[in-house]
Amino acid sequence: MTQYPQLHMMIDGEKVSGGGRRTFAVVNPATGETLGELPLADAADLDRALETARRGFRIWRDSTPHQRAAVLQGAARLMMERQEELARVATMEEGKPLAESRIEVLMNVGLFNFYAGEVFRLYGRSLVRPTGMRSTIVHEPVGVVAAFSPWNFPLGNPGRKLGAPIAAGCAVIMKSAEETPASALGVLQCLYDAGLPREVAQAVFGVPDEVSRHLLASPIVRKLSFTGSTVVGKHLAKLCAEDMKRTTMELGGHGPVLLFDDVDVDRVLDTMVPGKYRNAGQVCVSPTRFIVQDAVFEKFRAGFAERASAIKVGNGLADGTQMGPMANPRRPDAMERLIGDAKAKGATLHTGGTRVGNAGFFYAPSVLSEIPLDAQIMNEEPFGPVALINRYTSEEAMIEEANRLPYGLAAYAWTQDGKRQQRLAREIESGMVGINSTMIGGADSPFGGVKWSGHGSEDGPEGVLACMVTKAVHEG
Question: Do residues 236 and 286 share a domain?
Answer without folding.
Answer: no
